[in-house]
Amino acid sequence: YGWMRDESRANRTVLDHLHAENEYREQMTRHLNETHEELYQEFLSSIHETDYTTPVAKGSFWYYSRYEEGVSYPRTEDGTSLQPLLPGEEVYLDVPLLAQNKTYLAVGVIAVSPNEEYIAYSLDLTGRETCLLFIRNIATGEEWILYDTTSDERRVMEAEGSIVWNNDSTAIFYVTLDKTHRPYRVYYRKLFCSEGSYIALKLQSDELLLEERDGLFSVHISTTFDGKYLLVSSSSKESSEIHYLDLHDSQPDATTPLVCIAKRKPNALYRATHCNGWWLIQTKENTPNFRLKASRVGASSNMTNWKDVVLKSKGISLFDGGEQRSLGATSSLAISKATRLEFDEPAFDVGIGGNRDDTLPYVVIAYDSLITPLSHIAIPLANPSDLDRRRVMKEEAVPGYDKSLYACERTTARSRDGKTEIPVSLVYRLDSLQKQSFGDGIPTHLYGYGSYGACIEASFRATRLPLLNRGIVYAIAHVRGGGEMGRPWYESAKYLCKRNSFDDFVDVARWLTCAIKSSDSSSVGEGITVPSKLSCEGRSAGGLLIGASINQAPELFKAAILGVPFVDVACTMCDQSLPLTITEWEEWGNPNEEYYFEYMMSYCPMQNVQREAVYPSCLITGGLYDPRVQYWEPAKFAGELRHSTSEESGVVLLKMDMEAGHFSASDRYKYLRELAFDYSFLLDELGLLIGTT
Prior knowledge:
Helix content: 10-25%
CATH topology of the largest domain: Rossmann fold
Oligomer: single chain
Number of strands: 36
Distance between the termini: 45 Å
Organism: Thalassiosira pseudonana (Marine diatom)
GO molecular function: serine-type endopeptidase activity
Pfam families: Peptidase_S9, Peptidase_S9_N
Protein name: Prolyl endopeptidase
CATH architecture of the largest domain: 3-Layer(aba) Sandwich
Strand order of the largest sheet: 29-30-32-31-33-34-35-36
């Protein structure tokens, strides 16, 4: 299948093949057109097409985005076509206007200048995750695009997308990419002369502040929560190193030193933020999960000098696996009180919300569950446990949704090793369980990911309702390789243990389809379905999970959706010219070492399709401009499935988006239509082409 690879995306033979695949898919699913449209309309009926995000306070303003019915992208309004959400509303970026006559547009970063007069923002116009950078005067709408000052030609600059302003709003910091799409250089560009007029063209070269030469590491920039420091993080999957620069120094140059918080060490990831002269540091060094430590700004760049942050009342160290907000001075390196926020649902998702002003008397959290729509809640810092003092700032409205009709739970399935309990989240309509008594199983859809330590949260999705309303149980397998159970859970399924992810997913599928429940089980999930009514889905590295799982046990599934699937692991990891390959070696292993190569070959989906086996029906998606999973991976896998499996196997369909990258359509309506197609495929395969219950 090597002929399918064309990095120019211009080879006529390859493009004709991809168009032929799309035409074949359309022919094979023409009978689903009515269901496709029905699902799309259901999606629209379950969302407020005119809506806004939760306002976030920063400086003199509240910032938010809003959508209008029929408009594909968010924007802020000036009150001319809609009533202002808040008094004095101003438009600072009109994305629908920017998106006119474009097939793809994704906003990378929007950074408001400290003087609140300008915004710097980045746009991806291809799906390749390469951005153009712009500066805009908020009051006048005047705008400039940044040009590449490293070239003698007048060429628009392409960058990674992150932007940070200096303290006096006269310059920005940004990151550029190398030939393999790795963020590796941090530049400083002065934008205004002393009179405040914009310098649009090259007057002098940008100042290079840092270059990361190790191909395992990528560079990212951000500011500390208080806006005092620029943070430049060089990180791999296993190690990190953070430098900082005082943003009050408005004119850094190549001689301006970036100060290192701590030099990189093997197996020593860390993150940092600033609070009253201290670095608050989350570190993985010498602990299975992250520990919270502190170090004085300007102290020696040695991790041994870091001090534990302790809870005064109990004398114990604080551990933290997520985000934090500074709650005051830490001169004693101790916190007098820590409050755990309790929630009563069995499977939920909670995190830090939009907090940009640490002088406010509350912190905003975001809460949802598999059956509870997203809410942003203000928690008073003086009385965080007082439920009466909590204030819901905004709750996602879902027209026609009745929470009492649904249930969710968190349970576990035992792995084949007899000792590992795999978490499983379930959501379903209560009346769908009544069908279990018939003994023929309830249609079930199993989702998974299981890589990079990422968590598949038990969050609410209004677009899931059409499946639940047709009697489907939606299950999430939190397999090893994810981060749901902490860092050790992730590390137990990477490198030479990666097959644990696939074994876990297959074991959950067997648990869902087992004919006889274990005597001590009271779970809804165990034995709830049969293989002819079980479908599965995963995206990107989750597509690898699905590909490897259907290779291992094709008889367990009726249908599978593989979204932009990473299914040619061995070939991709051997090709250092491809984006992300070298940086991924600390996830999958370096195939230049024989034992890693042989292990990859043992699970790589492209290399392990069972010849003449009966496989489930497969819908495989890809994006022509995807820089993470090159389009030829899903195209090759579709061909291999058709070539090698039994003629009794289900249909293999390839849906190639000829205008997008890894993250599918940027147009929200186009995205919903694509999702409606995927779900119509599932309903057809599971025998559920009927109206809602």
